[in-house]
Structure formats: structure tokens, C-alpha cells
Specification:
This protein is an alpha+beta fold and about 400 residues long. The chain has two domains: about 1-45 and about 260-389, no CATH class; about 75-240, no CATH class. Helix content is about 50%, strand content about 15%. The protein is built from 13 helices and ten strands. A six-stranded mixed beta barrel has the order 2-3-8-5-7-6. Helix 2 packs antiparallel against helix 9 and helix 11 (about 305-340) runs antiparallel to helix 12. The protein is elongated.
Length: about 400
């Protein structure tokens, strides 16, 4: 029976391709849109993920997200260091600064200033140079995407391809000389701005003069002390806000969700993709069943039970479902691989996304199968003889 069911399915190539195409397109939409949304979320709190060594982020109480930086006085650092349970605490400068390129053009970049003594908060992946090179005069590190993208040097030939920044190239940060001493890999920012790393003291020199320059205090709890307990103690004693890395990520993400329409916009596209996929697949699969009713009539006339007919329909539905979803997932995986490491929006695919989209596709397939089953189970075997008269 199953062999015959597959021959029925493959025999009508037009409808078979149509069903698979509908499922594949629905799969692409249901994987691609949430995948881009996940990529955006990772960009939103990318700096928190990149700086993984500290347990706690200390900041001004009015800060609502990572980008909502409200500088502190440097003296707050010593207050935090004096709190019981704090193993160490270091400063971090984070701000957007104007960068002048070699051709005279300007752009903005995220500038991270790391503790001069320890360089805690530095990039985890250094492609060129050494972390200690940040202590060289006027030294900065540039993220790979920025070096190849917005900070790249113009080609000597008009209309030619731009040349990525290299170690030894010179930039200007707020009209102050900066020498590229390393190329690193970092999570892209939400605004897709380049990322520059330097020491905390040099970051204050690069930045426009302000009374307060300390963006965040990075804290490591002592071994044996609960991180959340130390964070609450810092808040109680200093009056500053102290969050664990996960809490700060969640707060940053929630701020974005509450203040933008990003979820509703992407969700709308996913729902439309699901409905279109269900409509197209259901209609084509239903028409395929109607065209083959005479064969199902023969099965019934030969004594096939309803259970056998259900098995035939479900096997056909599952085959086209897995095939269509596999094609759609493969297209998205190829796109994700092609955009990986790009300075533009990329696509992130994880097992949770594949499980969710695969479940949605199975719902579409079950919907199409139920429409067809209702017609087949109500079929009278006599239709075979009516069709031949």
C-alpha cells in the first residue's frame, strides 16, 4: 500500500512540486525571520556576551539598557571595590566617537576603554596582534567587520574595491591620532557601527572632555560568594545598580521589546508565512487527493480499511512535509553561512528555531492531511464503477 501511495504522489509531478514548493517557502519565512530577530537580539547585548569574565555589571541606577550609558565619577570604582564579596572591580568606558578615515571621511564607532592594568573586557578572539599591544602609544584594536566595512580604506582606483584596515594604519578619533595595533572579532552592534578597543585612560583622552567618564564597573565576585548576593550588596551600600550579566542582558532586551515594534513586525511576517503556507499546501494537497479519489475507491473496493487509507494519506503528507522543510531549512542554512561574519544583519539558526518551525510545518501538513482524509473516508467504493461508465 505504501509503495502504491508513493507512486501516486510521484506520478503527479506538477502537484508534488507545488506542495513541496509551498512548504519550502513557508519554512524559509518561518526560519529566516525569527533567525534575523535572534541575530538582532544578540547584537543588542553583544558587548555583554563578549565581556564574559566579570560576574556583575555596576552602573547608574537610571540606566535601562546597555546603550543607555550614564557615566559615573571615577571615585565610585573605589566604593565598589570596598564592598564585601568583591574579588576585583575594574572600569569600563563605552561610548560612540567620531572617527576620521585616511581619505578624510568620517564615521562613528563604538569605543571601549579597558582597565589599563589588567585589560579586562578585551576581545576574546584576536586575529592580529596581542592584547598587550593595547599599551603601545596611541594603540587601538579594530573589529574585523569594521576593518573590512566602514573603516576600510578607499581603493586607489576609482570605483575599485575598498582595502581593509591593517595593523599599522592610522585613524583619527575626535581629531586625535590612533594607530591600529590589532584586528579582533567581536559581536556586531545593533547599529552595525565599528568597534574600537583601547585602554581606559586613552579612551578618556580620545573622548570629548566630560566631568564623568566611567560608563560601567565590571566586578568579579569572590569564590564562594553568590553572585546575586554580592550584586544586591553593592546596590545596597553604594546606591548604584548592580546586575549579573544575564540580568543585564534581559533588561537590555526587554527595553528594546518595550520601546520598539520589532517583535510585532517580525511576528506578523511569520504569521503571514504560516497562513500562506497552510493555504497553498492545503489547497494543492486537497486537489491532489481529489484527482486520485478513484484510486482510493479501488483500495476500498479491495477491502482496505480506514486505518490503511489514513496511513496512505499521512505517509504522503509526511514525505512532502519533511522534503519541503528540508529544502527550506537548507536554503536558510546556506544564507546563514553566507552572511556569517558580515557587518550587516546575519541569520542565526539554532535547534530551538528549527524545532519550532518544524512543528509549525507539521501543523500545516496535518491540516492538509485532515482536509484530504475527510473526503477519502467518506468515499463510496462505487465511485470506481461510476467513473468507468
Amino acid at each position: 500500500m505504501l509503495h502504491i501511495a508513493l507512486k501516486m504522489l510521484f506520478g503527479d509531478r506538477g502537484k508534488y512540486i507545488g506542495i513541496i514548493t509551498g512548504i519550502a517557502l513557508a519554512s524559509v519565512i518561518m526560519i529566516q525571520q525569527p533567525g534575523i530577530l535572534i541575530s538582532i537580539f544578540q547584537m543588542i547585548y553583544g558587548s555583554i556576551s563578549d565581556i564574559s569574565l566579570p560576574d556583575i555589571w555596576v552602573m547608574d541606577p537610571k540606566i535601562q539598557s546597555l546603550e543607555d550609558s550614564k557615566p559615573l565619577l571615577d571615585t565610585q570604582l573605589y566604593r565598589v571595590r570596598g564592598v564585601q564579596g568583591v574579588d576585583w572591580a575594574v572600569p569600563l568606558y563605552k561610548g560612540s566617537q567620531k572617527v576620521r578615515l585616511t581619505n578624510g571621511e568620517t564615521t562613528f564607532a563604538n569605543l571601549l576603554g579597558l582597565d589599563d592594568a589588567t585589560l579586562i573586557g578585551g576581545p576574546a578572539v584576536i586575529l592580529e596582534g596581542k592584547l598587550s599591544d593595547l599599551r603601545l602609544p596611541d594603540a587601538v584594536f579594530v573589529d574585523e567587520a569594521g576593518a573590512k566595512g566602514r573603516l576600510a580604506k578607499s581603493s586607489a582606483m576609482k570605483g575599485g574595491k575598498s582595502v581593509p584596515l591593517q595593523v599599522g594604519d592610522v585613524l583619527e578619533v575626535n581629531d586625535k591620532r590612533a594607530v591600529v595595533q590589532g584586528i579582533v572579532r567581536a559581536t556586531q552592534t545593533f547599529q552595525s557601527q565599528p568597534v574600537l578597543y583601547t585602554t581606559y585612560s586613552r579612551a578618556k583622552y580620545f573622548a570629548l572632555s566630560e566631568r564623568k567618564m566611567l560608563s560601567y564597573i565590571l566586578v568579579k565576585a569572590k569564590p564562594g560568594d553568590a553572585v546575586q548576593t554580592v550584586a544586591r550588596r553593592i546596590t545596597s551600600i553604594t546606591g548604584l545598580s548592580a546586575y549579573t550579566a544575564d540580568e543585564f542582558k534581559e533588561m537590555t532586551l526587554q527595553y528594546m521589546i518595550d520601546n520598539t515594534n520589532i517583535i510585532s513586525n517580525f511576528g506578523f511576517v511569520v504569521i503571514i508565512g504560516f497562513l500562506v503556507g497552510a493555504a497553498v499546501t492545503g489547497q494543492v494537497f486537497y486537489n491532489f487527493t481529489l484527482d486520485n479519489l478513484r484510486y482510493f475507491g479501488v483500495f476500498k473496493a479491495m477491502g482496505a480499511t480506514d486505518r490503511v487509507l489514513v496511513l496512505i494519506i499521512c505517509s504522503q503528507a509526511l514525505l512532502v512535509g519533511f522534503t519541503g522543510f528540508g529544502i527550506g531549512a537548507g536554503i536558510c542554512a546556506a544564507f546563514a553561512a553566507a552572511t556569517s561574519g558580515s557587518s550587516d544583519l546575519s541569520l542565526v539558526i539554532n535547534w530551538q528555531l528549527l524545532l519550532g518551525s518544524g512543528t509549525a510545518v507539521m501543523v500545516i501538513i496535518l491540516f492538509a492531511a485532515l482536509l484530504s482524509l475527510r473526503k477519502v473516508l467518506q468515499l463510496e467504493p462505487a465511485i470506481v464503477f461510476k467513473g468507468s461508465s
